Each structure stands twice: as structure tokens, then as C-alpha cells.
Amino acid sequence: xxxxxxxxxxxxxxxxxxxxxxxxxxxxxxxxxxxxxxxxxxxxxxxxxxxxxxxxxxxxxxxxxxxxxxxxxxxxxxxxxxxxxxxxxxxxxxxxxxxxxxxxxxxxxxxxxxxxxxxxxxxxxxxxxxxxxxxxxxxxxxxxxxxxxxxxxxxxxxxxxxxxxxxxxxxxxxxxxxxxxxxxxxxxxxxxxxxxxxxxxxxxxxxxxxxxxxxxxxxxxxxxxxxxxxxxxxxxxxxxxxxxxxxxxxxxxxxxxxxxxxxxxxxxxxxxxxxxxxxxxxxxxxxxxxxxxxxxxxxxxxxxxxxxxxxxxxxxxxxxxxxxxx
Length: 326
Ligand code: ADP
What we know:
Blueprint lengths: L38 H10 L15 H10 E2 L14 H16 L13 E5 L6 H12 L3 E2 L8 H5 L5 H19 L6 E5 L7 H6 L2 E4 L5 H14 L7 H10 L5 H12 L1 H8 L17 H10 L6 H14 L4
Parallel strand pairs: 2-4, 2-5
Antiparallel strand pairs: 1-3
């Protein structure tokens, strides 16, 4: 069945605690005894709480569409995403630490007035690290991260016609149950990420009380991404001036754009060696020169920014109206 009441204050592990990692949870879903839940909800919780991101056995008997639906929303735990790999976003990291990490370490302190918030929304343009943060939290907290897409929180979604009836019912039921949990003493932390916050309805906003804007990377953050990616491969030979030039040229690039830029630039030396007639099968690593500013300048012609000024304005406005302002 569903995991028992948490042994650490308000924290109720969504994962069955036979793995020994009691209390290490990101999405605290639960808070009612098994008996209080009907079958649908119980199934729902179990689906969401697959302990290792793998589909639970029960799923195999359900319709393929539903399986797809649910597995799309359980985010894989990704050991490759660590806090240290996330450029910038100091404020967001600090908030997450306060809301998720500290309460796990000191449930005795995080009670009463200090009981952690129940919903966190990361919003902002695509490719800025929202998913990375989610995965990093999940890794840190050894929990399954339930990724709530904007569409599953909009009123449009709840009324959607095309969706398979049982899938719709399951999710609606889940949301209703969550409403119920809100009023009790138990805590639920939902972490949502979206690049279309405008589509969230009032109910979803109410559930996600802390709404953090995850903006495009600053110039320093862009420099850091370039350096970090190239250094990992032992390819970093750029001067400070080169880096500053790259930063000037990449105003408006997202983190994901920067990654694609580095990828393309790192192909420069390889392409050049091949142009000089070296066979790919014969190519030695020593035959390739380091990645240069010129490689980045060439790559800039291929990799263009993916977020428009217009879109940025929309996020800023939503932040002013609904977002956390610090
Ligand atoms: P989204 O905000 O759309 O969820 P992701 O977190 O999936 O974006 O980022 C996509 C990719 O872009 C990441 O895997 C990473 O390589 C790169 N990236 C985006 N933001 C950052 C960042 N702040 N620091 C380092 N890499 C980033």
C-alpha cells in the first residue's frame, strides 16, 4: 500500500519506506492512512511514487495511454545533475534549500510557523535550468520528482475532451485529494516547472505558493557554462578576453542555447582537421587544436537564441503580478 505516516514530523514519504530511506522525500504526497483513500487515489499515489523511477508492476495492467501519461510526469532521477552544475540562480537555490533540504535535515525546527511551504513553482523561459533544479532536488532528497506540467494544472486540462476518461478521472481525483490534504496538518510539497505560467489557473496558483522566476542566465552564468562544459572535456584553452567576447555576443541566450553553442564550437577543431585531409579513422586527439574564439564566432551563426524579447516581457509581467519579488 501507500507509505505509512512519516516518522519525522510532517514528512510523509511517497516512496514505500522498505528501502531504508525514510523521510528523504521531495514530493511529500500522502498524509492520510491507507483506509481513508479510495482505490483510485491509492493507485494514483502508487503510480506517482515508484521508488526508483521505474514503472510499478500495477501499471502493466493499465491502458497504454495512461501508462504513457503517468510515466511522462514522473521525472527520472538523474545522478548526473548536481547542484554544482547549475550556473547562477543563487536565489532559487537558496529558496529550495530552505524549503526542501533544511526541513529534511531538521524536521524538529521546521514546524509551526516554520513549517515549509507546500508548493514551489519554477517559471521562466525554456532552457534555463528549471528541470535541472528539479532533478538536483530529487537526487539530493533521494525522492521521485513528480513533474507537473503546466497543462496538467490548467482548468483547460481538467475539462479536456480528448483525454481518455480513466486517465482524466485518475488525475482529477488526485488533484481533489490533494486539495483535501492541504487543510490537514500534513504537509505536501509540490514542485512544478513551467514556461507558460500564464496558463496556470487560480487553483494551481493557490497550490504553488512560492513562485520563483528562473530567468535567462546572466553574463557570468553564461561564462561559467562555457568554462564548465569545456573543462569537463579538457578542452578549455580560452583567455579571459575570449570569454568576455563570447559573453558579449551571447546576450539573450538561454542555458540550453549556451550548451548547444559550446557543442557546435567544440566541433570546430575536428572539422578543421578533417578539412586538412586527415581521415576520421586516422585522426589523433593531438591533431586537433584547442577550441578558439573563432570557433564560437562560427557557432554563433548556427546556434541562434531561442527566446524572444517579447516572451521575456510576458514572464516579467507574470512575475510582477504573481511571482516572488526578491
Ligand atoms: P528548463 O528550464 O526548460 O527546464 P533545463 O533545465 O531542461 O531547462 O535545461 C536544459 C539544458 O540546458 C540543461 O540540461 C543544461 O545542459 C542547460 N542549462 C540550462 N540552464 C542551465 C544552467 N542554469 N546552468 C547550467 N546549464 C544549464
